[in-house]
Design a protein that fits this description.
2 copies of one chain form a homodimer.
Chain A (H helix, E strand, L loop, with lengths): L1 E7 L4 H14 L4 E5 L4 E5 L4 H10 L3 E5 L3
Antiparallel strand pairs in A: 1-3, 1-4, 2-3
Helix pairs in contact in A: 1-2
């Protein structure tokens, strides 16, 4: 299942890579796509939003919650 | 004790914040200063380089080791 989250604080490719690595650190099989312009992260393969939140916050960015489809 | 490390992959303030938060996550009492221009991170209050390496790599950046004084 693919789900998109709002994440504040990412401003460059280094930030994007950091968020991606943090999420994959918690869920190694996940697919992560970062949209810097829209401050969104799309994750496939993680069922629990709390895990995404934990990874994002742990990497130093602000997890704002899922984006309504 | 203050120690400076070379860290690659940090390009903006978001990256700097991410590295700082990761190191403080592992060592809450540490002081962390990021020098983006010189790609260096100065840490006070962490004795074990391996902890800094773990935090930096966990945040998605490349730990290159201590900088010679």
């Amino acid at each position: 299942m693919e789900k998109t989250y709002k994440v504040e604080g990412m401003t460059c490719g280094g930030c994007a890579q950091s968020v991606e690595k943090a999420i994959k650190g918690i869920a190694p099989t996940a697919t992560v796509k970062v949209d810097l312009e829209n401050k969104q992260v799309t994750v496939t393969g993680v069922e629990d939003d709390a895990l995404v939140a934990q990874a994002v916050e742990g990497a130093g960015f602000d997890y704002e919650g899922p984006v309504s489809p």
